[in-house]
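Something for you to look into today, if you have time. Could you write out one complete protein record for me, on any chain you like? Leave the record below and I will have a look.
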Amino acid sequence: MNPETEYREGLEEIAKHYEEIIKLLGEDTTRDGILKTPMRVAKAMQILTRGYSQDAHKVLTDALFEEKYNQMVIVKDIDFFSMCEHHMLPFYGKVHVAYIPNGYITGLSKIARVVDIYSHRMQVQERLTQQIKDCIQETLHPLGVMVVVEAKHMCMQMRGVEKQNAITTTSDFSGAFNQAKTREEFMNLLRGESKRI
């Protein structure tokens, strides 16, 4: 699906609902600047949630290669944007992924695609972290996977406590990363070169 030219079923209905919401907020939906807003928002929401129609496991298996490499593979600083399921406001940041192959590797860009698919759904950061880890573990069957997510949440920045500089960090790991030494190696590599969001 090309999100700029192809949209999922229900687009018109979503736009109608947004028109009603805009009216309930007190705006004139016939005004020039607002007239096309319901459809624009409907299209934007379908783009921001396109992960529901994509299969992250298939992305990994489409680029699966047999390889006798059993050291850590790290893809870090993967930018992402997601939608908080509690307030439907964005959260955004970076994902860092490491895995230790067990006979098979995947294309490096596919790791970023997995992040993209799960982040383009209504999410909480904790679940996003776990879903990325589980997908890689279940599909590649590596010796271990570790995922670290660092994010800023607009629901904390724009409303509620209004803390603009708060960063939330979550992690999840499996297999070889249950060993503190392996986790520490990964975290040291992140601390040494990773850029702040």
Remarks:
- The chain has a mean pLDDT of 94.
- Helices lie at 11-24, 32-35, 37-48, 56-61, 108-119, 125-140, 154-157, 180-193.
- The two ends are 29 Å apart (CA to CA).
